Amino acid sequence: MACSTPPSEFGVYRQSDGAVGVHAPKSAKDTEAQAVAVEECKKLGKRSATIVATRKTENDRFPTTYIYMCNTY
Q1: Contact indicator for 34, 49 with CB cutoff of 8 Å
Q2: Residue 8 CA to its chain's centroid (Å)
Q3: What is the CB neighbour count within 10 angstroms for residue 47?
Q4: Which of 32, 33, 44, 71 is most buried, judging by how many CB atoms fall within 10 Å of its CB?
Q5: Whether this model's pTM surpasses 0.90
């Protein structure tokens, strides 16, 4: 059984332009961050999330931030 990062360890926020940001902890994989974004998009009535940017941060707890756009398909 593979270990995964619990969704509660991610920081998720909505941007004013409709994008969803995901602050990922060090242990997180890209696919885990996308799964968290998809769940947030579903709350907005969308079906999927497409990554548009990845940013490295100076934050030790969340060293990477992913930006996703929600899609209806």
Answers
A1: yes
A2: 12
A3: 11
A4: 33
A5: no
CA-nearest of 42, 26, 53 to 11 is 26
Q: What percentage of the chain carries pLDDT values higher than 70?
A: 96
The predicted pLDDT at position 3 comes to 66
19 burial via Cβ count (<10 Å: 0-12, 13-18, 19+)? middle
Query: Angle at Cα 72 formed by Cα 70 and Cα 73, nearest 5°?
Result: 110
Q: Nearest CA to 33 among 17, 20, 47?
A: 20
Return the DSSP state at 31: H
Distance between CA 59 and CA 47 in Å, rounded?
30
Burial-class residue 55 by CB neighbours within 10 Å (0-12, 13-18, 19+). Answer: exposed
